[in-house]
Amino acid sequence: MSQSTDPLKKLNVLENQPITVRDFYEKNLERLRLSSANGLELSDRFIPEKNLHRPGLALAGYVELFTYNRVQVFGNTEINYLASLAADTQHAAFLRLFAFEIPCIVVTNGNGLDDDLLDIATQHEVPVLYSRLETTKAIYFMSDFLDDQFSPRVVIHGAFIDVYGVGILFIGRSGIGKSEIALDLVERGHRLVADDVVVVTRKGEGILMGAGTDLVKHFMEIRGLGLIDIRAIFGIRAIRYQKRLEVIIQLEEWDGDHEYERVGLDTNEASVIDVNIPHVRLPIFPGKNVTVITEVIALDYLLKHYGYDAAKQFSNKLKRRLEERFRDVSQDRVIDWFEHDFE
What we know:
The chain is an alpha/beta fold.
C-alpha cells in the first residue's frame, strides 16, 4: 500500500513528559486513599518513569542498584525493618536514601513514619504520602496509573465509534464523510467516543485504547451544519469516554481500477504503535449504505472473535463440493425438496 493512500504510516508517537508529584497526588487521591504526611503533596518534583521501587536493600545499606528515580514504596517489610533498628541506626538507614534525588515516598497499608524520619524527608523536600490500601493493591493502582501516563500514544484524525461493543475507527481524507457516518451510527443507537481528533494509547503489549481530547470531547463538526454536541442532543447513552480500538475502516472513493477484497480469506492489518489491527479499505459512492455495512463489519468481527469465520466456512464448503466432482449439478439445490405450501 502506498504512503499516499495510507495515512497510518505518517503517525508520530508523542513524546511522554515526566509527571509531577502534584499530578500523581491529585489524580490518585481517591483511588489510593492518599493523605499527605509532611505537607509537600503539591510538590513539582518530577516522577520520570513508570516503574516503582521498594527500597528494602537500600535501607539495609546496599545502594549499588538503587533505582532512586522511581516512586519509593514503603510497605510492611520496610516499616518493620526500620522499627527493628536502634534509633541512631534507623536514622542513618533512612537518611541514606536522601543522598539520591528520589521523587517521593508512598507508605502503604495504613503505616506511618516516626516524626524524626518525616523531618528528614521534609528537610530534603521529598513528599511523603500515606495510603490506607494494602501494599499489593496500592502497587497495582500506582503501576496502572503510571503505565498509562508513560505509554506511547499517537493522534489520529478520524471518527471513533463503539458499534455493538466493537471499537471502530474511521479514517480517510478530509471531507469524505467520516463524521456523517458516525452521526448516522449514533442515531441508530451506537456510541461516539471521539470525532476528528482521536488519541490512541498502547496499553500493555497488544491493546490500543482510544479517547477524545478534553477540548473537543463529544462535539462533532458536520459540514453545512456546524458544530453539534452529541451528548446534549442524544443523551448520555450516546457517548463513551474511552474504548478499545479493534477495527480500522479506511474510507476511499470508488476506483474501478483497484482490486478490492471480495472473499475475505486474507485478513488485512494495519500497524498502530506496533500493534496490528484489522484494516478494512471500504470504497464508497453515492447511495452506498456505509452505516449498515459498518454494523455488519462489527458483527463479523465478533463472530471471528468467537471462532466463526464465514469466508473460511464457505471456502471449506466449496473445497468439499469440488472434491465431489461427479455430482449431478442439476440436483445441487439449497433444499432437498419444495415444501407443500409452494410459497
